[in-house]
Amino acid sequence: MTTSVPRKALVGFDGREASRYAAQAACEMARQFGTQYEVLHVIDLPDLTEVGGRPDLMLQAEVEIETRTAEVLAGQLEELDPALTDHFQVRIGRPARVLLEYARESGVDTIVIGPHEKRGLFDLGSTTRGIVSGARCNLWVQPKAPRPIKRILVAFDTSEESRAALTAARDMARDLDASVTALYVFQAPDLAYAASPGYPMAGPVYAIDDVRKIAKAQFEASLDDFDWMGVEHEPRFVEGSPATVILGEQEGHDLIAMGTHGRTGLMAALLGGVAHSVIREARIPVNALRHPSRTWQLG
Q: Which of 146, 190, 263, 266 has the greatest number of C-beta atoms within 10 Å?
């Protein structure tokens, strides 16, 4: 279920700069929220037994590779924060599959990853695509070294998913003595036309101004009904393309929080829409939160 702050996190670590940001973020979560975390590196080795490899020699080689890899990466983690090495382990298998299985078995509520890279563990075309498509928990993307979180930007459209994100952002802001900006992005709908008898030209069925007013009224009513628990907040109603506006509003904020829909799976919600664009292009951390009542349909 969605938690107000990360309680148990899993970091995929491969030694690249992107995964270092994720590891640093986990350390900050531990200091700020008491988050428990694990750091996992997965070695993807081919099964050479299928092409005539000797099982005894392969097992020995796997052990040697695992040991050497663990030593190298543990040294890198110690440079970042000695505490990281106490929560680090190496496994062999398909990275996305192993990470997701570990997250499910361990009751992880947040998977922490670094920013998009064209190659490596955090390539959205490989391992990260698998993580995003199969994740049944929240996703935290850390694009650079962590900094204090004092202003949280929440993408809010009055849906249940965005309300869950707003609640989580409010609770996190209380813990951090931060403020929240609730951002509603109004995207003007395409005009619907209906031909009138005797007239060659069709006319609009509804006026965009009326739709805009209704949307703004619903947004304001939702915020009025929301229990802010004393958290400083600012409503913003902006018209435009959602991803473009959200990314444009990130300046002056330290974290973007947004809900994800579970109707067709997290893959469709993130990789097929606004959240994917924000995650891919954001220069500040993004906390993509699943609604507690949703079950992802994996495919």
A: 266
